[in-house]
Design a protein that fits this description.
nine-stranded mixed sheet; about 25% helix; four-stranded mixed sheet; about 25% strand; UDP-N-acetylmuramoyl-L-alanine:D-glutamate ligase; alpha/beta; about 290 residues; single chain
């Protein structure tokens, strides 16, 4: 439900980032890390609170409201992306950006949440004061949105990121090889500072690095992958939720990999896990 900060209730999973409007040939579609994460955390049975910024009249907000408490910082625009495809591949444009997300926007009732997921899509949330509102929580960042910059035309380009003070406090940092393709050395720069770094490599699985030491993990193979959109967001959210429920990072990564593999068998937002799929994945690792 859409709530006012003063009427917000306690939550388990605090989620911070811009929802997006993605411009497609079929029309505007809801997107962004938080749109996948709110559904995924809800499927784990957790109470979710999303702090986002958007045009408060945007009908796409109605697609998030059933999955948790949604606090909207009003903005003239909803963050909007458009992808152009050619023989050279995908070119991404950002057409509008919503407002900043700051510590004072966090509802007081959310401060004791045990889990914090900052899922930026367009640079938002890179603020230690914002994190400090959740001092007792496990902190996770899905890094993609802090690795973007854009020019006057909206053309999105890679932006390096390195903040040791924040890295050392994070419990989980997640990004993909695609996110850092233009600077592959970034993995080795960041890894020694991160408690748990999850570096995903699509259908090949990825690496779990603790203190810079890597352990490979596998992704279950699927016969007919349909759409990879959102799989990384489902993976990261599932890992944080499963870590909270099982206490085991190894089991949590297995759960995340299984649910991300399921995700690619369906199109877009329909790839988020169901409560039944979550239950099966948890049961499989705890057997």
């Amino acid at each position: 439900m859409i709530v006012h900060p003063a009427s917000a209730k306690p939550i388990d999973y605090a989620l911070i980032g811009h929802m997006t409007a993605d411009l497609t040939p079929e029309g505007r579609r809801v997107g962004g890390t938080v749109s996948y994460a709110i559904r995924t955390a809800s499927a784990f049975g957790l109470r979710v609170g999303l702090l986002t910024s958007a045009d408060p009249t945007d009908p796409l907000l109605d697609e998030l409201a059933p999955y948790g408490q949604v606090v909207v910082v009003p903005s003239d625009h909803t963050t909007t992306f458009e992808n152009a495809y050619s023989e050279q591949g995908r070119t991404q444009y950002i057409r509008a950006v919503a407002g900043p997300l700051r510590a004072e926007h966090v509802p007081p009732a959310w401060g004791d949440a045990p889990l914090l997921h900052v899922g930026p899509i367009a640079g938002e949330g890179d603020d230690l004061d914002l994190f400090a509102r959740f001092e007792q929580a496990r902190w996770m960042v899905t890094l993609q949105g802090w690795l973007r910059q854009w020019d006057a035309s909206g053309l999105v380009r890679f932006k390096p990121w390195f903040r040791p003070a924040l890295l050392q406090r994070l419990d989980l940092l997640v990004f993909s090889e695609e996110d850092v393709r233009q600077q592959p050395g970034m993995l080795h720069q960041i890894a020694p500072y991160a408690k748990n770094l999850l570096y995903t490599q699509a259908e090949r699985g990825g690496l779990h690095l603790q203190g810079g030491l890597p352990t490979a993990f596998r992704s279950p193979l699927v016969e007919q992958p349909v759409d990879p959109t959102g799989a990384g967001d489902v993976f990261a959210t599932s890992v944080l939720c499963a870590l909270y429920l099982t206490g085991s990072i190894r089991q949590a990564v297995q759960v995340g990999a299984a649910l991300a593999a399921n995700c690619v068998t369906r199109v877009g937002i329909s790839g988020v896990p169901t409560p039944q799929e979550v239950g099966a994945a948890l049961a499989a690792v705890q057997a």
